[in-house]
From TrEMBL:
Keyword Cell membrane among UniProt keywords: yes
Region (Disordered): 167-206
Pfam families the UniProt entry points to: CAP_C, CAP_N
GO cellular component, one term: cytoplasm
Domain C-CAP/cofactor C-like: start-end pairs: 270-405
GO molecular function terms noted in the UniProt entry: actin binding; adenylate cyclase binding
UniProt-recorded name of the protein: Adenylyl cyclase-associated protein
Membrane topology field: Peripheral membrane protein
Keyword Plastid: no
GO BP term, example: cAMP-mediated signaling
Entries under SUPFAM superfamilies matching the protein: C-terminal domain of adenylylcyclase associated protein (SSF69340), N-terminal domain of adenylylcyclase associated protein, CAP (SSF101278)
Assigned protein family: Belongs to the CAP family.
WH2 domain mapped to chain residues: 209-230
Amino acid sequence: MSINAYEDIILGSFANFLALSNKIGGDVATQAQFVKEAFDAQFAFLKVAAASSAPSNADLQNLLKPTSDKISTIQSFREKNRTSPFFNHLSAVSESVPALGWVCVAPTPGPYVKEMNDAGQFYTNRVLKDWKEKDSTHVEWARGWIQTLTELQQFIKQHHTTGLVWSGKDKPVTGGASVPPPPPPGGLPPPPPMMPQADFSATGGVGDDRSALFAQINQGADITKGLKKVTSDMQTHKNPGLRSGPAPYKAPTAVANGTKSVTAPAVNKPPTFTRDGKKWLIEYQKNNANLVVENAEMNNVVYMFRCEGSTLQIKGKINSVVMDSCKKCSLVFDSLVASAEFVNCQSVQMQVLGKVPTISIDKTDGCQMYLSADSLHVEIVSSKSSEMNVMIPKGTNGDYTEQPIPEQFKTVVKGSSLNTTCVESLG
């Protein structure tokens, strides 16, 4: 029954997701093929679990390796295609596909899948927002992926409530050695963690710690037998000298080969300014105030990565621009079809001369946005960011009114739901 139920997901909501991915095509279809291979690998693993008894930790690692490798491939594909026009699609899947690691989670694999589903919600919401008025196929695609993970959670709740069930009697047959996942692409941040695998070394790992924890909890009243008695010389009210508290913490000085170790400086790579088809790649520029993108077309994408103290001007109307891991940089552009995005940036500025539908700010500290009279209907989406200010034009004399974007929120419980409101600054 468990195998049939999982097959129903593959032939139902997941098959619909694959069909919509192929309809969209491009990077979405390519990544969907990797996702299909990951689900097929897990399907084969579940068949082994249904016909076998629980294996040793080493054998379990080998059995999980095909699924783990596919998850690594999916996440690496997303990192290698950060300038893709479907980057939100790739990120939605990449952030949530570790849900397939539920087979390593106990005793709550169902809620773990929901956590992974929620982890990708930031990007699925972007897809829904960006495409709801352009192409309903993308909207159905996002809903299809969410539905697949939702059905996976329901499947786990029904057949593997407290963890993966091994239903057979014989030990599973395994082969091959475990190989660590490939390193992340050079120059890009590492991908999110993959499957939450336990430490399978002989000295014990996460699984052993969990087992020990639950064994202690199950002792009931006997759990207090291991506690030490507090004697009179340990009581602070009888010994004032014990009330002084701990000394202030001082970070230890690392010493290597008799000398103090120094943090290695960031690797400096040569600056690049290239065009690859529809993509403009601007990387590792430092203190360059004359970066200009000209003769760009409406379907072009500009990607600015690891630049510092530089200014980029985009002439003409393009699709979108992404500023990733930049510091003290400025961006000036005419108009965008889709959005301007700031990710992992520090102290950046942006000015739009024409129109921009959406501005996205993620993990950024310090972002000044100068709007034009034609861009007052812009939607600004922010997450894990601070010091964000919007400059709204006032009149025609070039003056601006500065408005901060809220960073603090207050949440109260109302019945069975939550109500969240912004906390206004009193400064």
